[in-house]
Amino acid sequence: MRKLIPVIIYIPLILLSCSGKPKGNEIKGKLTNASEGTMVYLELITPSEVVIKDSVKLGKSGEFSFTNPATYSTFLRIKTKTPNNFLTLISDSSETISIQADANALGLNPQIKGSKGSEAYSELNDYLMKSYGKRDSLEKVFTTAPANVNKDSLMQVLQAQYNQLMLEQYNFVTGFIKRNSESVVSLAAIEQLDADKEFAVYQQLDKELGSKMPNNPYYKDFHLKVSEMSKLSIGSTPPEIIMNNPEGKPMKLSDLKGKVVLVDFWASWCRPCRAENPNVVKVYQAQKDKGFTVFSVSLDQSKEAWIKAIKDDKLEWPYHVSELAYWNTSVVKTYNIKGIPLTYLLDKEGKIAAKGLRGEELALKIQDLLSK
Asked: Is the distance from CB of 208 to CB of 185 less than 8 angstroms?
């Protein structure tokens, strides 16, 4: 799903300065290693856009001062013209924030005072960067392993280490969210969790933020997304799909209630989709006589390419539909499709039982649902 807040977790943060005497609470500081005349910008990060609020040229001292533009708990960013050189803050109108940072690496170990939200964000950012670094190291061990090393054995060892890293990150992030459930900084953390698997965490945070800041724009944006996500959560009835098949006959997803159905969003131009098709064909052939079928929704534009792919990949189930509208297909919005292939597995009651399953995992889940 789209990032809830346009805040880059993986890249360090930065602050900004402006000219003129502040008229309210300040964001002030000093940048070391700053060249005289360096432009520094203060940006407001809203749920939908980033707006430059002020700018200033640094003098010889590298000091700056901005009037804090926050009228509610909000994300701010100080940056220079150098790409990815920025510092993210979380502030409200009651705070006066002071910063010391390296002008050439604003997000690298900045010293921030007067803003608990900013300090928490730095904690989150630092942890995630270290976690990503550890994962990169594991990948490097595998890719640089000598030719005489048993790659299968090595992969098992590295996979176990990777799983442990992910468990540690999960525990940190969920603990961070609980500790900061009354701050918008929790919205940056929750994006590290799989919304499908951890929807209960999303719902709990939605409830807690709603009780503390119901009018905050970031909360409203988050609440809207949680509401939309609830329509596609495990156990819910998915939105109806009514589209034409290649012969121009309309087909309805709801007409398949009573069967276990794999709703498969794909396209002829999607290489990962075509690579997964043999697995779907295999499970279809094994289970089609036991109450299983596939409802394929194509994001193709060309009818000819769509029909050819169905034939070439031997997709023999009878339920193929498309609007031939590419990413403008209506289901892209209703099913929150950010990439394909994407699958929803429905039980006999027509409710969502699983999402995104492939290969053996998909086959086992289908077998389980058919046995009920």
From this structure: no
